[in-house]
């Protein structure tokens, strides 16, 4: 373990003595080839990979709009970083904190392999979070497996494969320390930075080791930047400098074999600059917390008690194609399966009770009003 300093940004490294990043012997681990020759890395959430059409696109910038009421965006960021550590991919983390190395101690560990998790994943998003419904569904899936040799079920049950594309992560269990040691992990602090030039240099040096090779396998890298426009950073009021940095980051990532995930508190930006940030994102997501004891929302949605937040998909990267990505639903519920792993599900409207006469008409009229929730 070594540390390097002497810059405006505090920087520490978990990398070995070797300076070059060498691809693993098994090829490009953790990279999947999708339609039109596009390459994807997993977001660390299997449901999100499926919704986005394969995961996070290599060479793209993913931006996540934070919610001021709850830090649920950190769940997505931690899963993204943990997935890269599991696949032994180079990782660069930047945060508005004194010692960003400590953030690595909060990364979740992969869920231990089991047939139950594999069968649940094979059931897809229609599977319920209720235990009894799951048991019934698993029995049905097992019966169908006798007659149909579907590849999805067989692949999901082989959870012992270390090179699988996407893992479930246990948010209650930290990542084992030995997985962090000896890997190409760099941590950068932006809390005391006056400008973003040093962070830009770090990103440039990081992606320079990850050239894109056409037709050949190479190591994929991940850049994770937390709260880029945090008010505690000294460059906070330099709006154009931050926009210039995002443009530069987008150009660097586009020509490399890496992907960048940037979270930012949109409420601290002016409307005009917030729109600029959103426009620069290749994939744009936003997180919103569930209000406590919202009786109206509890009546409107089924499974409201199990939800911890909403995830809204504003934009999806679509490379090498002029066909727009059409999502089944743009707003999804964020749940914790067995209180440990993240699950994204479509919103289901609760049935309206028609036995109450005029009150039912009032409730139906309320549910038909304009809403940000997409069913």
Automatic annotation (TrEMBL):
Domain of life: Eukaryota
UniProt xrefs under InterPro entries: Elongator_complex_protein_4, P-loop_NTPase
Major subcellular site: cytoplasm
Pathway involvement of the protein, from the record: tRNA modification; 5-methoxycarbonylmethyl-2-thiouridine-tRNA biosynthesis
Cross-referenced Pfam families: PAXNEB (PF05625)
Keyword Disulfide bond: no
Keywords recorded for this protein, A-Z: Cytoplasm, Nucleus, tRNA processing
Gene Ontology BP terms: cell division; cellular response to sucrose stimulus; negative regulation of anthocyanin metabolic process; organ growth; positive regulation of cell population proliferation; regulation of auxin mediated signaling pathway; regulation of carbon utilization; regulation of leaf development
Protein name: Elongator complex protein 4
Biased composition (Low complexity): 354-375
Subcellular location: Cytoplasm; Nucleus
Annotated GO CC locations: cytoplasm; elongator holoenzyme complex; nucleus
Keyword Nucleus carried by entry: yes
UniProt family annotation: Belongs to the ELP4 family.
Region Disordered, residue ranges: 113-132, 350-375
């Amino acid at each position: 373990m070594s540390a390097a300093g002497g810059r405006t940004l505090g920087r520490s490294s978990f990398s070995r003595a070797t300076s070059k990043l060498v691809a693993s012997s098994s090829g490009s681990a953790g990279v999947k080839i999708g339609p039109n020759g596009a390459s994807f890395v997993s977001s660390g959430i299997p449901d999100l990979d499926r919704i986005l059409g394969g995961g996070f696109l290599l060479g793209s910038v993913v931006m996540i709009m934070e919610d001021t009421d709850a830090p649920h965006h950190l769940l997505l960021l931690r899963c993204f970083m943990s997935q890269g550590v599991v696949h032994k991919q180079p990782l660069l983390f930047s945060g508005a904190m004194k010692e960003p190395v400590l953030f690595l101690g909060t990364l979740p560990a992969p869920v231990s392999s089991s047939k139950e998790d594999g069968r649940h994943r094979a059931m897809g998003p229609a599977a319920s979070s209720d235990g009894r419904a799951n048991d019934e569904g698993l029995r049905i899936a097992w019966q169908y497996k006798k007659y149909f040799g579907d590849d999805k079920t067989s692949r999901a049950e082989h959870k012992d494969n270390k090179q699988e594309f996407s893992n479930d992560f246990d948010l209650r269990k930290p990542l084992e320390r030995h997985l962090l040691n000896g890997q190409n992990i760099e941590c950068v602090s932006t809390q005391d930075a006056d400008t973003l030039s040093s962070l830009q240099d770090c990103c440039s040096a990081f992606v320079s080791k990850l050239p894109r090779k056409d037709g050949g396998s190479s190591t994929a890298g991940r850049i994770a930047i937390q709260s880029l426009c945090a008010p505690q950073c000294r460059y906070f009021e330099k709006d154009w400098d931050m926009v210039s940095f995002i443009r530069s980051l987008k150009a660097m990532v586009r020509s490399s074999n890496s992907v960048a995930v940037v979270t930012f508190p949109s409420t601290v930006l002016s409307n005009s600059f917030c729109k600029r940030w959103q426009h620069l994102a290749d994939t744009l997501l936003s997180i919103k917390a569930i209000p406590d004891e919202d009786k109206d929302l509890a009546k409107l949605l089924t499974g409201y008690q199990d939800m911890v937040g909403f995830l809204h998909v504003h934009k999806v990267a679509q490379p090498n194609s002029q066909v727009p990505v059409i999502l089944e639903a743009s707003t999804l519920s964020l749940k914790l399966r067995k209180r440990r792993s993240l699950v994204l599900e479509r919103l289901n409207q609760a049935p309206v009770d028609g036995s109450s006469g005029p009150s039912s008409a009032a409730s139906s009229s309320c549910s038909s009003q304009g809403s940000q929730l997409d069913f």
